[in-house]
Amino acid sequence: MPQGTIDFGSIRNMIEYRFTLLDAYIDVNGLPIFVVAQEPVKKKFVELLRDLANHNLMANIRKVSGKLVISVFPKPNLRRPKNWINIALFLCTIATVLVFSYTSMFSVSVFGYSLSKVDPRLTAALFGNSNLTLQIIILAAGIIGISGLHESGHVLAARHHKMDATFPYFIPVPPPFPFGTFGAIINLRAPPINRDQLFDLGFSGPLAGFLATVAVVIVMILTAPILTQQQVAPLMAAKLLQSTSWPYEPMLFDLMNQIIPRTAPNGDVLVFTQLEIAAEFGALITFLNLLPVWQLDGGHISRAVFGDKGHKVAALVAFGVLLSAGYWGFAALLIVFMFLSRRPLEGLEPLDDISPLSNARKGLFALSLVMLALSIFVIF
Fold first, then answer.
1. Where are the domains of the chain?
2. Residue 97 and residue 183: Cα distance in Å, rounded?
3. How far is it, in rounded angstroms, from Cα 116 to Cα 259?
4. d(CA 330, CA 111)
């Protein structure tokens, strides 16, 4: 039987081999529809999809009027992704992050527009005779590393489940935007099979990015310079230094300070340097991505955990958190992107939306809430 050409009877035989078939017909769009008995379908449906894939077909299973209905349809004919675009965007992102890192160290003005207002007194106090070029590279490496590992988590999850996904598309942004990047995205070219896969796709990126952020925070604490009170006082008077704690910095910072107590002797002060910027970037993308909204990673997680209706309720709560924490611009931008899409209030829908999420992943959902709580900080 040629690939992509398969008759109704052959598809019916595939269904009957694994399911108790109650009814079968062709709908008004010419697609085969099969009504099957109420029973656990997770494993059977995965096997069915594997068979259908040999004929360039796929399927979904839904509950319609209390009945389980399997719809079979052709796989979309997609163009091969152009990997040179991913490489070009990554190189541009390296450039913009390096520019941001440079302006975080030096006062820079272009065509009369100030890109940075770094006071040389602060740089001298924190780094002394250190190689500032190395400090710039360390900051850029921290930002790109966190973003890259976040996306690598998604890629590994997609490869593990054999999902058709692209390599990351990094998003470079020029000054005066902070960090030099808006992170990266991968494009999933086919829906996940079930809620387990959807959860793994959403959870894997924030987990990898959060662990990378924890590593950066540890290095930040261990390498922070110690200044005397005499050195700190004029810098604080000039508002070049400030003492902050949660909620104006991520709770993760305070927690790691307790786990790794690096005390300064004789009343001296431990001062975080440029790695704090990278750590804040990591906490920020973890927090924003874990919000249970639309196509964000947290949206995939909440859609897998709560289903369609619960996902929408969680999104309303998330927007309340965004506005309360001062992220009005991000909330507005997210709303714009949502309503420019075809399904603005919908999450990513798996092919099998019937089978429940595994118990182990329900436990990992609790971990995602912990990561969210440790990463959030207010910006007003």
1. 8-74, 83-375
2. 11
3. 34
4. 29
Residue type, 70: I
Q: DSSP characters for 261-321?
A: --PPGGG-EE---THHHHHHHHHHHHHHHHS--TTSHHHHHHHHHHHHHHHHHHHHHHHHH
Q: Give me 153's structure tokens.
A: 């988590």
Contact in structure between 219 and 342 (CB atoms under 8 Å): no
The Cα–Cα gap between 209 and 374 comes to 13
Per-residue pLDDT reduced to its tens digit, 30-76: 899 999 999 999 999 999 999 999 999 999 999 998 899 999 999 98
Task: Tell me how far CA of residue 349 lies from CA of 29, 138, 190, in angstroms.
Answer: 21, 40, 10
Q: What is the CATH number of domain 8-74?
A: 3.90.1070
Q: Which token pair is 258? A: 């307790």
For residue 183, the SS3 value is strand
pLDDT band for position 210 (cuts 50, 70, 90):
very high
Q: Is 164 helix (H, G, I), strand (E, B) or coil?
A: coil
Phi-psi map region of 3: left, alpha, beta (phi>0 left; psi -120 to 50 alpha): beta
